[in-house]
Amino acid sequence: MHDDGLQVEPQASEVVRATVSQPPAAMPAPARRLRLWPACVIVVALWLAITLPGWFWPGTQFQINCMVWGAIGGAAAVGLWWLVASRAPWTDRALGLLVFAACAVGSFPLFHPSLTYHLYGPIVRGLPVATTAWVVWLVLTPPLAWSFRRVGMLAAIALGWGYCTLLRMDGVDGAFTPEVSWRWSPTAEEKFLAERSGHRTAAAEPALAKMQPGDWPGFRGPNRDSRLVGVHIATDWRQRPPRLLWRQRVGPGWGSFAVVGDMVYTQEQRGQDEAVVCYLARTGAEVWAHADSERFSETIAGPGPRSTPTFHDGKLFTLGATGKLNCLDPATGSALWSRNIKEDSGVKLPEWGFASSPLIVQDVVTVFAGAPGGKSVLGYRVASGEQAWSAGERRSSYSSTHRARLNGVEQLLLTTDKGLTAFEPTTGKVLWEDNLPQQQFACIAQPAIVNDTEVVYGKNQYGLRRVRIHHEGDHWQCQQPPAWESKAINPYYNDFVIHGDYLYGIDDSGAMLACVSLADGKGTWRARGYGHGQVLLLADQGLLLVLSEKGDVALVEASPQRHKELARCHAIEGKTWNHPVLVRGKLFVRNGEEMACYELPEDVVAKTAAR
User: Which domains does the chain have, with CATH numbers?
Assistant: First the structure.
C-alpha cells in the first residue's frame, strides 16, 4: 500500500511463492477398468457347450449332459470371475451375485410349467440368458459412469431371468433342441380346438368296416415291418408330383393310422379328452369320435396318445397314454369293452406314457405294461376283455409286442432296456430271452425278423444286435455271443426296415439315414437331411419312402452302393415323428399338428413289367 491509498499488484514472485507454499487440492483416484475378456471367453464357451453337441451328437445323453452342465458350469465360471478377477468394487461383487441368485429363485414360480420339467428351463434357458445379459451389458457400457453401469447390470440380470418367464416350451425335436414360443401364444392343440366348430362331418351312414386287399390294419402295416409289396409309384415328382387330396389340423398325438376300406383311424388329444377318431379316407371328413376323459402330457413330446389303433376281425383296439385299453365298434366308435392296464397291473404311469400299440395273435390282444411280479406284458381275450395272462419281468420299454415265427413256432417279441424277450401268445410263457450285459435306456424301436432263426434289434442309442435262436423240443436258447453287434446305426424311436441283405433306418447319433450290412453289421453309407424321421419300404421297387422330421416326404433308393434321393416334397408342417402309411396309392401322414392325404402317381410301366 502507498500513502495515496492505491492498491499495488503483488509481484509475480510473491504469487509463485504463495502458490508453492499452499498444499495441492485432493484429486479423486482413477477407477480401475473392469477385466472383461475372461467373461467374454466364458460366455462364448458356454454357448458352444450347449449348442455344438446338438449338431454332431443330436439327441444323445452326451448332448443332454453338455446342455445342462455347460449352462451350470458357464454360469458358475462367470460368477467366479466376477468375485475373483473382475476388478469391480467388493461391495458390487457381493451385490451382483446376490441379485443373480435372488432373481433365479424369485423367477422360478413364474416360469411356465413346461419349462420347470427337471429344472430344464431355469438351467438350460435361464442361466445362459441371464449370464449373457449380465456380461454383454458390462462389455457395451465402459464409457458410462460406474453408478449407471451398476444399476444397468442389475437390471440386465433381472431382465434376463424375466425374459425366460415369458416363454413356453412346446417340446423338443429329435436333436433335443427346445421348441420355444411366447407363453401367451395359442398352442397347436388350442388352434385345432378353436377350428373344430366348423369341422366337417361325413354324411355317409355307418358302414361295416371290413378288411380289403392292400389295407393297413395297424402299426407299421399287416406284418408290423413297414414293408409294402405289389406297389409301384412314379419316382419323377417334377413331372408328376403327389396330388394333395386334403390336409387339416389334428389333435396332438404321436401314433399313426389304421386304414380299412375308406375308413382312417387314429388317436388324438382333444382338450381333456383322449379321442379315437374315424375319418373318411377320400375327404378327411370326421365319421365318429370316441372320447375318454383322460389327458396325458409331458414336456419332451407334449400331449396326446402315443400308440396306433389296431383293426382285427371287425373290431378296433386302442391303447391310450394313461393306460385305457378299448375295444371299439369300428363303424360307430361305441365301446364293446374297456380295461385299464395301469389298474390291472398296479404299475406307475411311465414317464412318457403308455405307448404300446395293441397286437392280436390267436384271439389274445397284448400290450406292454412294465409292472413287477410277472406283469411286464398283459394279454386279454379279444371277445370279452377278460384278462388271459400276464408274464415277464422287464420293466422299461416304449415298444410294442411284435409277431414272429422262429423255428416254425409263432411267438411274441418285446424289446426292453434289458434285451429281447419271446412269449408264447396264448399263455404268456416266456420262451427265451436275450439279456444285455448291462441295462440300457428304455427301448422304443421294433425288432426285425431276418430269417427263421435270427432277429435284429436296437439297443436304444447303443447300436444293433443280431441274435440266433435255437430250439430243440421244449428247450429254447439264444446263442451267445450274438452273431454281431454294431454301432453303425443307433436306432432310438425311429424304426428300421430290411431289404435284401441290408438294413435301412435313421441313426440317432447323427440324425442320418443309414445303410447297414446284415452279414457283419458294417455301415455302407450315411446321409443327412431327414432328421429323426420314419422309413417305409416299397419292396418291389427297392425304394425307401422317408417321412422326415420336418414333414418332407422323400424317395430314396434302397441300394447299398450309395445314397441316392430320387424325389422330395413338403407334405405337412411341424415336428413329425409319426409313421407314414401308403394304401392303394394314397399316402397318409400326420404329426401332432396336421394330417394330410396325398395321391401318389402310379408307375404303370413298372407295374406292368412286374406282372
Answer: 37-182 (no CATH), 188-610 (2.140.10.10)
What pLDDT digit, counting tens, does each position of 360-413 carry?
999 999 999 999 999 999 999 999 999 999 999 998 999 999 999 999 999 999
Residue 66 identity (one-letter amino acid):
C
Q: To 10 degrees, the CA torsion angle through 536, 537, 538, 540?
A: -170
What pLDDT was estimated at residue 183? Answer: 93
Confidence of residue 121 (pLDDT cuts 50, 70, 90): confident
Q: How many CB atoms lie within 10 A of CB 86?
A: 20
- How far is Cα 302 from Cα 199, in angstroms, rounded to an integer? 24
Closest CA to 254 of 3, 62, 494: 494
What is the per-residue pLDDT across 16-38, written as a single tens digit (0 to 9) for each? 444 444 554 444 434 568 999 99
Query: Burial of 461 by CB count in 10 Å (0-12 exposed, 13-18 middle, 19+ buried)?
Result: buried
C-alpha neighbours within 13 Å on the C-beta side of residue 267 = 36
CB contact at 8 A, 457 and 464: yes
SS3 45: helix
Are 309 and 265 in contact by the 8 Å Cβ rule? The answer is: yes
CA distance 457 to 415: 7
pLDDT higher at 200 or 151: 151
Q: Distance between CA 491 and CA 514 in Å, rounded?
A: 10
Please provide the size of the chain in residues: 611
Summarize pLDDT for 227-278 with one digit per residue, the tens: 999 999 999 999 999 999 999 999 999 999 999 999 999 999 999 999 999 9
The C-alpha atoms of residue 48 and residue 38 are separated, in whole angstroms, by 15
Q: Where are the beta strands (DSSP E) in 382-518?
A: 387-391, 402-406, 409-416, 419-423, 430-435, 448-449, 454-458, 464-472, 475-478, 484-486, 497-499, 502-507, 512-517
Query: Which residues, listed in sequence order, are joined to residue 589 by a DSSP beta bridge?
Result: 596
> Under a CB-based contact definition with an 8 Å cutoff, are residues 348 and 299 in contact?
no
Rg (C-alpha) for the chain, rounded Å, is 32
Side chain identity, residue 352: W
Instruction: Compute CA distances 27 → 23, 143, 149, whole Å.
Output: 12, 20, 23
Query: What is the pLDDT at residue 1?
Result: 42
DSSP H or E stretch at residue 128:
helix 127-140
One DSSP character per residue, 335-377 reads EEEEEEHHHHHTPPPPTT---PPPEEETTEEEEEEEETTTEEE
Q: Which residue has the higher pLDDT, 5 or 218?
A: 218
- Tally the C-alpha atoms within 13 A of residue 495's C-alpha that lie toward its C-beta: 30
The residues near 377 (Cβ < 8 Å, ≥ 6 apart) are 366, 367, 368, 369, 390, 391, 392, 401, 412, 414, 423, 428
CB of 188 closer than 8 Å to CB of 592: yes
* Region class of 346: left (phi > 0), else alpha (psi between -120 and 50), else beta: left
Residue 182 CB-density burial (10 A; 0-12 exposed, 13-18 middle, 19+ buried):
exposed
- The long-range contacts involving 453-456, CB below 8 angstroms and separated by at least 24 positions, are 453/406, 453/407, 454/483, 455/404, 455/406, 455/413, 455/420, 456/498, 456/503, 456/518
